[in-house]
Write a structure and sequence with these properties.
Rossmann fold; elongated
Amino acid sequence: MNKAKIIMALTASFFIGGLSAADDKQISPELFKDGERVVFYGDSITHAGWYSYYINGFYSTRFPNKKITFMNAGIAGGSASSGLPRLQFDVLDRKPDTVYMMFGMNDVNRDAYKNLDETDEKILKSRENALKGYKANMETNIKKIKEAGAKLVLILPSPYDQYSQSAKAPNLAACNDGLAKCAEIGKEFSTQYKLPIVDLHSQITALMKANPEKNLAGNDRVHPPASGHIMMAYFLLKAQNFPSLVAESAIDAKTGKATVQNNCKIEELAVKDGNISFTYKANALPFPTSSGPWKEASALVPLESLNQETLKVSGLADGNYKLFTNEIEAGKFSAADFAKGINMANLKTAQSEAAAKIWDAVAKKYNAEQPLRSIVQTEAIIRGAKVDPADKVAADAALETFLSKVAQKEYYGKVFEKYRKYRDEKEQLVKAFGEAQENIWKVQKLEPIKIRIVKAE
């Protein structure tokens, strides 16, 4: 799909569901502050998905002097209804300053959309009841979170991909229409309770419609791949008005002076024999862009707009030049390229290597947090059976009873196997998660680098 069509799809998405980019009624979420504790509360898309970790990565690279704690409170199979019994111990007891809540995919009753007969009263009633339950349970969640004193942001649910022509799962071809109604309910609550919202639903739906050859929600039409989670993070950050600027610098080669130093500092600038060298220290780092998922997502949304580290050099003699950062060759560019400006965020540089270390630390945090999510997922089932998880015999019996009744026996069997493996290590796992978070802050370092612009032979 060409860029013009993508831009048209994104522009149109702001009007789907009656919500425009200029709508004064839409409340934008705030940027996270230093010391803030943020919980992402939702279903499997949050539980094992990466969007909250990409947001963590963006903040850790863009604001390396801030210590923000991001916490996952997603549960596979979760809904606005099943979230309520765990809301206190899994969300509120963690003392969040802000909660981002997204439910809908498991509330809409996807099975009610297998039959497209719009005259079947039983099916229509089932859909209606699911939406009524969703509305009631979402409102209860909203009230409890507000009563606890946390700020709340509603994420309108990620869509079901009924548009993909290549996804392997059977198509519940009206399911996303039901999720659109869940999104409308979210907008109503935003107005009623004056809550910020992030409209993932209409914006990603627009991309799905414009790209039916792709699987933007995976082969099951529900769970986005890594590139989909990057796009989710993109829309969340755009809703926050996340700054696009990493740093901006400009040098006049004729006068040997730095003319622009925006969010960065240039020192020891020297121009000799047509070559340039200087010490460069930016107050932020670019987000790493070398991964396959980043490139896939960039083909559909303008990720570069959130990742601008520009270097301009005017007054260079005609010809080609090599750009080095700490002896890493970032690329070869013409004098005209330098005059126009180069986005170093797209290149392999000393800055991108430092950013990659931060992203590695975020990925390790993901790996440390996932076993804890398996524990919470299983303990929520045990508590639902009115059993204390500390009573292992009774807990195991409750799990066996649950397993005998549930359809997804293989999936839950593996979940319970993980739980039995990890439950005696819970204290150590909590400690490991804390250490992983501390490690991210430790590697959020900014070091000056040496940049050289050298005539290419």
